[in-house]
Amino acid sequence: MSDPLGERDIAGAPLAVVARAAEPYLASLRDRPVHDRAQDPLLDELDGPLPDTGDGAVAAVERLVRIGTRAATHSSGPRFFHFVVGGSTPAAMAGDWAASLLDQAAGLWLTSPLAARAETVVLRWLKELFGLPAGFGGVLTPSATFAHVAGLAAARHWWAAGHGVDVASRGLAGLPEMPVFTSGLVHVSTRKALQILGCGRDTLRTFARDDAGRVDLEAMDAALAAAGGPAVIVANLGEVNTGDSDPVAEMAELAERHGAWLHVDGAFGLFAALSPRTAHLARGVERADSVTADGHKWLNVPYESGFSFVRDPASLSRAFGAWGAAYLPDADEERVNYNMLGPESSRRARALPIWATLRAYGRDGYREMVERHLDVAAHLGGLVEAAPDLELLAPVRLCVACFRYRPDGVPEEDLDELNARLGAALLADGRVYAGTSTYRGMTVFRPAPLNWRTTRADVERLVDVLRELGARLTG
Questions:
Q1: Tens digits of per-residue pLDDT, 342-356?
Q2: Predicted TM-score of the model (pTM)
Q3: CATH match of 362-473 with 3.65.10.10
């Protein structure tokens, strides 16, 4: 096969290959292992030299689909509990296919009024979903890390202006270190964003009153008073090991008292606002200067999806706009150019899967899903507490259960090594997926059931498999 122009009359044929494979593949997710290592040799079929003469679209896509449906890690299924990963609702998946089909240049209103209008609409819907003020500005990003980059870039511009410098134009040279204060619940994505922004990932100062990382407000208050100028506070809503959260409202009080910028990392914890049972955890978010969250976690839309909201809508354009390129059109209130509000210039229409899923299931559907996941996580915590060889290490607050394998007769000093081996065995087994982390110096499991397909039966299977494998390891 040569020039793709020769396939213009059959351009829909490779899409039909994927469509035919989709229904049986999706139906199989209920029963198949999350990862079957016996299929890994298929990955070699992806390799080889670049062909001089191609196979043609249908043959190439048939090969890709055959390998992928067998050898992929099936993280879109109900038993992928590793990290904090959602799935893709039926509507979101179809919306993502539509985004690829339409292939919009989504950065400028001129190139795609459809993408720009859809992004404007979904940002408004998300603010309504989370209870954020309607006046907040926002932008969709590829991830929570990029959402942090957007929000903290706005904070950096605000901070530098306090020193009389337009940092977007002049950079950081000659400025002091930007003070950034947080708790021990901070996620590595915040540090990475500061690294990308040139502020330095290790300049972040943490104030924790215990080994779980809970914030020491008195120490932070004193540090803000001693800073002698503007500072940034990062509040964390939903920590990845336990689901714990900072007291956002109290940190908002600190920010207002000291004239600081409050940035809230709500990667998955922001969804606590959807349920009356957990809404108190998100109290105070509406007082923040910038708020971030992940779409490919609890919203259950495909990768890549994040969002960043800011109290002052103009702060994003100050941080990312005004390129001075003659070929780029100016924006106005009706025709937003989103590539001037975030770190990306070339952007896909990632608003379309979000629009599709929010239109399909609405506020009530998402509240019901979040509350089901709260119940599933609580059920998992109860199973752990009832098991004689498992130990729950923190209260189940949101969608994360933190525990370890602790059978009788194993000395305390051997438990970390045993749990690390058990974590490796669980991933190698592949029936369910949940890796290990470190919490309060201990090697732990921290499964997060927030896939739209996940039910109580799936976490029951996790516990059964863990105990089965643990019994094998300990003889």
A1: 999 999 999 999 999
A2: 0.95
A3: no
